[in-house]
Amino acid sequence: xxxxxxxxxxxxxxxxAACRATWTAYSDAYERRYGAKPVRxxxxxxxxxxxxxxxxxxxxxxxxxxxxxRVTERFVVSKCHDVGLLxxxxxxxxxxxxxxxxxxxxxxxxxxxTQANYDAADEAMALxxxxxxxxxx
Length: 137
Prior knowledge:
- This protein has helices spanning 2-34, 42-55, 60-70, 74-78, 83-88, 90-99, 105-136.
- The chain is built from seven helices and no strands.
- Helix 1 (2-34) packs across helix 2 (42-55) and helix 1 (2-34) runs parallel beside helix 3 (60-70).
- The chain is elongated and about 70 Å long.
- The chain folds into two domains: 2-103, no CATH class; 104-137.
- The mean pLDDT is 84.
- By secondary structure, the chain is an all-alpha fold.
């Protein structure tokens, strides 16, 4: 039983350390951006813990810092980079951090137009193939 208790303590300590590092990265970036410390309370602490559990101990501090430093989504900025929004979009922000490219409204619109063009080309090719098949039948 003692070994199991020690293992749980080590895991909890690792989680606590990751949460502290994530909070520090988020808080420092927040203060740089807004010139004020972010609110920290039980609700915020719980969200940070959930974020760390979803993203992982090693990456969560860098993703949290990236979120505040680089994410410029209108809703996120209007909510002053709320921790709840970080948690809600955790996997997406992790992907943006990993690629080094924050998604902007302009980039999203360009991606949408590009996909629409690909879809239209696929539809045109399908029509051409269908006509050729009908002509050879």
